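I would like you to sit down with the record closing this message with an eye to the fold:
=====
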Amino acid sequence: MADLATMAQLLDPRELIPHYVALPQILDYWFTKTFYTNVKNVDSDSVRMISISATATPGQGNVRNGKARLIKPKGASERFFSLFRYFTEMPLEADALRALRELDSPSMQQKGRDIVEMAQEESKILADLFKEIVFSQIMTVGRVNLDASGTILVPSVHATTGAITDASGTVISADFGVADTHRGNLDGTIAALWSAAGTTIPDQLEELDRKCAIAGVPRVKDIYLNPLCKKHLRNNTQFNDWAKYNSVRVDQVLTGDGIEGLWGRNWHFVGGTWTDSTGTTRDLIPSTGGILTPDIGPWMRAFSGSELIDTTNLVTNDLLGALNQLTTIYGPFAYAETTRNPAGLSYFQGDNFGLGFADPNAIWMPTLFA
């Protein structure tokens, strides 16, 4: 990755943005890597998704020379949602300005680059983590709460009914259309928790397959759980029978990040925590719940919003000239601006993004463990 060696490069978004995007990720942003795929660029702050579900009602037969049956289109469902926006400013030390101006002193210029690099990396960590937590909330509860300052809050979900309640202090509540019956005990499908040794998990999954067929959505193929849930699987009678039948050791199977083909599903164990505004440590996937989905496909959509960036940082009285200085950036963006009285430098960084369900009936967010 090339250094931003001069003030001119620092103030040119065409240099700064690729530099920012290429910064290494310090953390493993699992939700972003797994679900934020096949991203579509959009120029609006809101998006429209169209989904056509399968139907379980067959068409009507006919006879030779019979009049054609009249078919009325079932129609498609439409869903709208707004993109999330992240935008921050980090003022840089005056030393950074002085150092970057020292063209005849490589050591001073390096100091300026180090200050800028540190600001970029810190900003990117905060931005990437915000994005990751938003995605984790979408996938685990189907709703994102933000307070007046844009801080992420965590709504509560009833363990049985799946009813969701916004967190205290919520100003923005972004709901993704997941029905209460797709949370909690899945309208009675999870009749016994998976933390009980005698629970017949395969039977529950087969019942869930039937519900998927009735709803016209693909069957569950992937199950995402907190790694702490492995201890419950170790104690499950049917899991031990499965391991014995397949001539594998239970502890050996559960040492990795996943199991392929267990009861016809792929099981993923996803760790990772974050700290909320109260200082409480939270799991990306709660240890009492899980995420059950079909293969990632058209039922879920990912979007990258646009931002107009001034490429010159120059003041002009010419409207056409000012417009020509603007360029459109999709997804993460960054730029720097100088300030006066006193002279300074501010680093701006942001992102416009979205993840939504074209068909919310395809995802399940049950309470599975005590």
User: Anything to note?
Assistant: The mean pLDDT is 84. DSSP finds ten helices and 22 strands in the chain. The longest strand covers residues 344-357.
